Amino acid sequence: MENFIMIPNKLIWNNEDRTKTYTQEYGDKILHIFSYLQRMTNNFGETYFTMEDMIINCGLKVDTHKGKSFSQFKDILIDLKKKDIIETTIDFDNIKVVTLIKCKFNMPIEKSNGKNTRFFNVPHKSYLAIMDNYIGKLNKMNLLKTYYYISSRLSRREIKIVDGKKRTNDIRAFGGKAECFYDSYEAICKDIDVNENTWGLYIKELNEIGLLYYDNVGIVKKNKESHSANNVYCIKEAELVDALKQSKLFYISSGYQIIGKKANADLKVIQGLKGKIQSEQNKNKDTSKLESKKEKLELKNAKKNNDSEFEINKLLEENDGEILSSIWDGTNDKTADRWYKLEVDLGLIDEETNELLTDYEYYKWTVTHYIESKHDYYANCVSKHIRENKEVEVEPKHKGLFGAIKVTPEPIKKLDETIIDSQKKDKMTDISLFIIDKYSDSTVEIQSKYDEKFKGLKWFELSATQTDHMFNKVTEFFNGYANPF
Questions:
Q1: Residues 51, 70: Cα–Cα separation, whole Å
Q2: Angle ∠(111,113,117) on CA atoms, nearest 5
Q3: Minimal CA–CA distance to 224: which of 172, 301, 314?
Q4: Which of 93, 128, 168, 233 would bridge 132 by S-S if both were Cys, CB 3.0 to 4.6 A apart?
Q5: b/e for 127-141, b at 16 or more Cβ within 10 A?
Q6: Cα–Cα distance, 291 to 324 (Å, whole number)
Q7: How far apart are CA 368 and CA 313, in angstroms?
Q8: CA atoms within 13 Å, Cβ hemisphere of 172
Q9: pLDDT at position 303, please?
């Protein structure tokens, strides 16, 4: 059975008054103190520890000088004793760092109708992954604070009793909302007193050590104004798919148009150009070429279709089992109609019944690789696949969803030049997005140096080996100018 530390939400988050938390009162060290004392409590409700062990476990050095770590921790414990959170006969004013302290720790969990409320559980292994086992370069206390803040704000599904004993809140069995939370960077950073760059750094680190999963639906647009959607945060990876679906539905129901993630790169370049234009204007320099470039990019971005702006692969992953015309139906009817016509023309679906005529994996392969200039080729591929796989039975799950394959078709053994071109195009897209992202986030000086070194490089004329070599050079160039945290 997995062990947990039960933590009051008010330790770091108070939905009634964001300024009244234990962290606001005592500082970040209280996060570790509450967790450490709970961890050091035995089955008889007795807590044993030394100040030395508490401080070292926090990742700090024991310093007995006035105002340093020993006195800082001791002052907090003295106040917790006054509030009866700690019950002990020990006089904290006269203890030494190695004094063995025995106490009773009363975690301040709120009650409602005799039941615990407004708390979150932290698995021991998650706490230890940060405080004991983390070997990265970031501050452990800030990492713990980020993890606790997110955990305290997660929505929770009700636990169900199955067969009189089994406890579960499986969303697939009982429905409900994903266990996630979202808010703007501005609000989050105000809550825990960090800047946006720091927040981004710590959520990325938590993701890399397997304690956090997050993403967003990309760019959303309303009343001609576009911005990035808020991230959704989950501590269980399985919750993320449903969390993103909820986020998408929230924005659509609020009158937003979901543009998606590919538009991020274009908008970053536009923002970068705006900054460069302003910088050049401040120097009284001619910015007509930059303005022309910005206008062309804005026009290009405005003319993009929703489905080309939102990565098809990502869209299909988020709506597993559905075809594109069904996904867009009710959200963008023009896009849905266009995809429906293409699906029928390629022979992927039956025009009369709307049933999928191929297995879903082959459908995904076709729509993600499709090139309009090679329409007849793909139609022939679909026709041949259907003939060769007549034994594949497709059973609709319900309206709008299609059954999984019963017989796995043989994999394609040959990649013709069309597929190779498509793969190269995908690779070049990834490289372009990387360069655009790094370039737009760079200073004018770095952008100028990049232009001198790489501008005019004809990527599509390079061989695969040359492409990899040049991309390594570009990566090294940007890494060389990266600002250390």
A1: 7
A2: 35
A3: 301
A4: 128
A5: bebbbeebeeebebb
A6: 37
A7: 7
A8: 3
A9: 44
Mean pLDDT for the chain overall: 80
Q: What is the pLDDT confidence band of residue 299, given thresholds at 50, 70 and 90?
A: low
pLDDT in tens, 346-356: 999 988 787 89
316 residue type, one letter: L
**pLDDT at residue 418 is higher than 50:** no
DSSP-assigned letters across all residues of 72-83: HHHHHHHHHHHT
3-state secondary structure (DSSP) of residue 312:
helix
Q: What does pTM read for this prediction?
A: 0.55
Name residue 220's beta-bridge partners: 227, 258
Residue 225, phi then psi, degrees to nearest 5: -105, 130
217 neighbors 229 (Cβ within 8 angstroms): yes
Residue 162 · residue 153 · CB < 8 Å: no
Rounded Cα distance, 266 and 261, in Å: 10
* Residue 142: pLDDT over 90: yes
Given a cut of 80, whether residue 417 has pLDDT beyond it is no
Identity of the amino acid at 164: G
Measured CA to CA in angstroms, residue 118 lies from 115, 148, 153, 190, 350 at distances of 10, 13, 10, 21, 52
Q: Distance (Å, rounded) from C-alpha 92 to C-alpha 70?
A: 11
The single-letter code of the amino acid at 152 is S
- Residues in CB range of 91: below 8 A, 6 or more apart: none
The pair of three-digit structure tokens given for residue 475, joined into one six-digit string: 């990566």
**DSSP for 87-115, written as a single string:** E-S--GGG--TT--EEEEE----EEETTE
